[in-house]
Amino acid sequence: MSVTVNSAERAPLSLLTLLWNEGFSDYYVPMQLRPDRFGALIERESISLADSFVALDEGEPVGFVLTGLRFQAGRVVGFDGGTAILPSARGKGIGKLLMQRFVDHLQTVGVELAVLTVVSKNQNAIGLYKRLGFSSIRELVCMRSIMVDPLVRSGVPGLLIRKVLPIEVGHLATDCYLRRPEWQNDESSYKLQHASALVAELGGRTVGYAIYQEAQPVLLHQLGVLPEYRKRGIGSHLLQAVLRESETAKVSYLNHPREEIAGTKFLHHRGFEPFLEQVEMHRELEPKWRPRQADQRDVSLIKQALQAAHLPIAGVDEYYPNFWILEDGEESLQGTVGAEVHGEAALLRSLTVREDVRGQGLGKRLASHAERYLYSQGVRDVYIVTTTADAMFSRLGYMRVTRSDVPAEVFTSSQFQGACPLTAVVMHKPLV
Fold this sequence. Notes:
Layout: E1 3-7, H1 13-23, H2 35-44, E2 53-57, E3 60-72, E4 75-85, H3 94-108, E5 113-119, H4 123-131, E6 135-146, E7 159-164, H5 173-176, H6 190-193, E8 196-202, E9 205-213, E10 218-225, H7 234-246, E11 250-257, H8 261-269, E12 273-284, E13 292-293, H9 299-308, H10 316-319, E14 323-327, E15 333-342, E16 345-353, H11 362-376, E17 381-386, H12 390-395, E18 399-400, H13 408-411, H14 414-418, E19 425-430
């Protein structure tokens, strides 16, 4: 047997779809997808094909691991978005090779925590993950229901339910859940940022919320009520409002934590039945390098580094949360990179490395780290404007474009208009 593990960055979508369908052909639940649906999954879960891998046996593709990256409270988290081996290639240690590459790669690119979910019945996979250093965190249950009867038979005086943006309610999980929801339902995920949300208000206070996808069936990501307001019918009113907004009676809740006993009882009483049980597993990593997200205390430090490199400092006070800095063992800044986010496009800016540590690839790593962060936030196109570094960015995959090719929201930004002369080179890189 001659097995190699390669990056999935250049693998055709048709090949990955074929591997997905064959690898999951005998799975515990149906997971067959068309290429367009598989592409939507890649987009929805922020899967980075550049950080994913395909296994080849004697040159033939036989398995894969899909890798997603999230940035949660300044911490970089990597998750297994799907691992499968063709039935004919199992029992050869290919799964172990893929997962070891997955873990090793995450540490190389600065990830601090690896997470995954695995079907509880799949004891072979659970045993493999434990041997690779993963620990079981909690049990999860996938539930579904068809609401055939009215959920609510009496009102809650003064209760107001209204539609809001998910970003307005994600923080409520801290008060409504015992701990952060697992990665597929976490507020940092791209799909939750583009989902629908409702809040329940009573006496001017937000007392509950729901985050969901308006699909068929509805996909419920989070449903919470503050502990002191439970058993008043607020959760039922929220669930009824979700179904009314989505115009369906079918609803699924994937990976509800079994430890949320009150929520589990509520769902059971509303007719939800489990159809799959999973285990959430984590492994703490020790990345080989660890850039950190800047905070307000770093603004003056960033400005000093940019001024030393003769780079503009305009906008740093506004955009510092989208800056990353790399420090040495004495907490001295070695390099920094920042970005301005404008919807699905971003302007990469302010990339600099301290002169005495140049030539070690830190600039490339910082740029790649920023790109991974931007991709996790839904950015799909990155632009840069440079007067001196076009050769370096060309090696990083950026290509020259004209100013007319730049989206209006980036083109009209203060950084693009005010800090870059007309003689500067404009470059673009699509993120996949």
